[in-house]
Amino acid sequence: MIVSSAAPRCTAGALLLLATLILAWVQPVAGEPAAGAIAAEHAPQFENLDTEHCDAGYLTLRWHDDTRFHYQVELANNPGFDGDNEVFPGSEGQVFLSGLRSGKYYVRLRQRPLGDDRESSWSPWSQSKELVVEHHSLLLTFGLFSAGAVVFVSIVHFVLGHERKRRRFGH
Amino acid sequence: MGTEQYGLPPQVGWVLLAAFSMLWIGLGLYWGKKAQSVEGHMLAGRNVGLALGTATAVATWVTSNTTMLAPQFALQFGIWGMLAYSTASIGLFLFAPMAGRIRELMPNGYTSAEFVTLRYGRGAGIIFLCISIFYSLTWMISMAMAGGLLLDALAHIPYVIGMSAILFVCVTYTLFGGLYAVIGTDFIQSCLILFGVVVVGTAVLEVVSVSEIYRALEARRPALLDVLFPAALMALFNNLLFGLGEIAHSNVWWSRAFAMRDGVGRRAYLLGGLLWLPIPVAAGFIALAAPALGISVTRPDMIAPLVASHLLGTAGAVVVFIVIFASLASSIDSLLAATSDLITKEVVQRFFVPRASEASLRRISLLVILGTGLLTWAVCLPKVGTLATVLFLAGPMVGSTIWPIIGGLYRSDINPRAATWAMLLGSASGLIAYFTIGWQTASLIGTAVSMLVTLLGTRLFPHNFSWGELNPDRPATPTPLTPAAAFARSASASVSTV
Question: Which pTM value belongs to this model?
Answer without folding.
Answer: 0.80
